[in-house]
Amino acid sequence: MSHPFNASGNPCPGPSARRGFLKMGLSGFATLSLPGILRLRAANPEASRREKTAVIMVWQPGGCSHIDTYDPKPNATSEYRGPFETIKTSVTGMHFTELLPMQARIADKLTVLRSMRHGSPGHPAGTMRMLSGDTDTRDKPKPRLPDWMSVAHYLRSGDGPRENPLPAYVGVNAPTTYNGPAYLGDAYSPFSVVGDPNKPKFVVPNIGLSDSKELGRLGRRSSLRENLDNLERAFDLSGELGALDEFETQAMTLLTNPKAREAFDLEREDDKVRDRYGRNTWGQQLLMARRLVEAGVEVLTTSLRGPLCGRVNNWDDHAVNHHVFDALRFRSQAYDQAVSALIEDIHERGLSDRVLVVVTGEFGRTPKINYQPSTGAGNASAAAGTKQPGRDHWARAFSNIWAGGGIESGRFIGATDKKGEDSIERICGSGDFLATIYQHLGIDSSKITIEDFNGRPTPIVDGGKPIPELIRKN
User: Residue 461's closest CA among 436, 424, 426?
Assistant: First the structure.
């Protein structure tokens, strides 16, 4: 079996052959509704085991206004600064807006990167830029490169059989637009949890089944070898069927292991903890994220979208969509509470060295406010035709926040100009963003390539370097 991860810098062998084989052989097993579970590559006895660090990425689809949150400009003119007051944080010299009082209180536990910048102003291109490093500024309907989550899952799968019953990569209402595994194949997509975890009796299907009849039925259907009878036995010469046995074991473990069910079960949390995160979709998503990484999930993505955002269900605060300031007010309490609770929790539970939390969107919003007629009434939007303020796409300067991961916290990195239009100090791009995340996961992005559909070795990061201030201290 070939190495999926070659730390010497040689190209990693592409996944295309195995991917095609799995697509043929797992068709019968797909009825179990376990997308993303059969991902583990066959055990490699020579693979070195890296520390199982983890990343939680909290995604703001549409892009968060940096001026109205983490990079206020109180001295700018009214056409730029917005209506929100600037407040002090627990870190001297760091200020947020009044929308984020809870995060301001725990600012000593996070780091703000204020100087992000890239050249992809559309949602598809911006998302692909941030999640996969694709520098093409054109908006494409689907990604050309795999996102960092799928790449990390693919590379780490070479460490040997997974003893933990939980999947390595889970998405809890994850970002699903303009990202994905691309040429790695669907086997490296996340195990997907969808729905509102705040609803009473919310459960994740097919996790830790306890019904004896259902378990018996699965037992009769679970043998992958039975589904492969019509394939050439020559495949077994390369050891592929042995690998599939391992995949089958992992899938059945997830289905039948009660510990797997427990990890997803928010009812096991104390009511005070659930209240602390917020009894709403976002709060309970981030609580589930913490539970899962604590239980051994290594890559966790979750997207803050839906009704809590306002009328159009995202952070895309054009005037035609939202009254930008009403929208920010509308979502700020749930956002501020959930994110601050997550950051505090990973520190209090001893996870802050192992688990890195990153909160970001694909870009920021225009510093200069514009006014357009609304296209429809709803939460945070006036009646159709009403002129209201908005901010448009802005990739020349924006902020994201980082916490945990063993990094030095309580500071901000970089700066934008007095209007918030351009990053001017410690400018960081999407390649730097990705290289930093990979570094935390024990992946040297400067030395690794993966073969694409055409067999061409493709770097997992092209031109970026880890941001020194966001690398663990020891």
Answer: 436
